[in-house]
Amino acid sequence: MTHKQIIKYIIREESIPEITESLKQNRLNLGLKNDEKFLIYLRKVLNISSLEYESILNKIESTQPMPHTQLLNFIITQLEEQGFKWNGQEELFHILIPNEKWEEYKKSWYQWQSEYTQQIKKDTIRQAIQSRLKFSSYVWTLPEKEQKKLIPTKIEAFIKIERNQNETREKFKTKSMDFSEIEPFTSSINRTQEQLLEKISVEVVMNIELLLDENRAFFSDKKENQQFLFKVVPILYNKGFYQFLKEKVFPFLSRQDREKVSIKMQEAYTLINCECSNYEEIFYLLKSIPETSEEQKTTINTMIIHAFMKYKIYNHDLTKEELFEVLKMSIGYYHSLYKSNKSSLCYYPAIQLAYMIQTLKILFPSRVERNRWNIDQIYTAVKPAIQKDKELGGVSEYTATMSQFEFLLLINHSYDSFELEMFMEDFQPEISLVTQTMNQIQCFIDMIERFDNENRVVDSFSKTLQLFESYISWK
Q1: How confident is the model at residue 173 (pLDDT cuts 50, 70, 90)?
Q2: Exposed, middle or buried, 167 (CB in 10 Å: 0-12/13-18/19+)?
Q3: Rounded to a whole number, what is the largest CA-CA distance in the chain?
Q4: Cβ neighbours of residue 394 under 8 Å, at least 6 residues apart?
Q5: Residue 295 burial (10 A CB sphere; 0-12, 13-18, 19+)
Q6: What is the pLDDT of residues 266-281, one digit of tens each?
Q7: Whether pTM exceeds 0.85
Q8: CA nearest 323: which of 359, 350, 349, 354?
Q9: Distance separating alpha carbons of residues 395 and 285, to the nearest angstrom
């Protein structure tokens, strides 16, 4: 645990509310910015004995997780203590986070090792560490005491696997040919392209459209554009420029970059969010992505079922009976994925399942199938996983919070608009995240209105879309 954690706990649990503000003000007046010094001051002012202090530490360790960076440092310490060797920080970075570029994270990496109080906001970093050490995302939210029990066993298993793999590689190792002189070189990004990336990342949607139009020359398969195209993908993706990515970026990416997992996932999401996308292309693109963790497997399988559902709804003139069959099939897949899921992302297929069940209940009230599933029970089952991911921060927090909101909307047919607005204002999610939620809601509305345009259940969902559209309009 950190000094900051202990300070927060003492002020929240041990101090009298009336003197809390006084303590904070004294910290400023006495210049006690250093957490360790302020903690000594707190113990003295509140007369906390050594025995009481030990009890406080035990309570924190039993109820609160380590901050992400402290857990990362604990992992590194365990690797050292169990005899794992590496040559320098760059190699250690690639051991734990193999698919990310060292140069992009070099500064953050050193900061994470010196600052024990930070959260690692980027989900892909946490997921990479989880995947390498084969633990679930819930470990980030376990109490410190449990983290310290679990991590050493995961490190031990990791080292054993690595040593076995190294021995196998050495056994069958043949001297590889040195192609360094004829290996294709990657052209670096130029200053004009750098400036354009900076502008796109901060501008509003309307201005970005103008920038893209004015700089059409950069969106081609020329070698000097490859680094620019690779770097512009996540920016345009987060801004919701799906059609542009589909038509003007992905087709021109180099084979090397297009095969990267992060690019494949973003291309798959892009195609799902674009009208008239080819379902077959989406299906085989997702199936080509390695399922390196339970979370990755859950995400990919859920995306495949969702893509199939959208393809059937928007690319076919379904009769009501045909829609019933599609709903039954989708529910079967989502239910199977949800019931067999062992990852913390179990709520991801569960919310999709809930939408399908609700559609079935509204449009087919006399069918016996409508009584087989209960949305309230599904929500109760996944609620602990939602709560854990809400505490992770970053994309996980948004996805979990929105899933909870959508469950409550499906169950109660109403929502607290003020609470939702406050969350959006505080969190400031990327447009791509909001668009995914909107598309899910819109798909539900379209299914209902196609066969029952008098149904008022969709009103609260339509109001939600208006709130999201308002958010995006000024983003």
Answers
A1: low
A2: exposed
A3: 75
A4: 119, 120, 121, 122, 123
A5: buried
A6: 999 999 988 878 899 9
A7: no
A8: 359
A9: 23
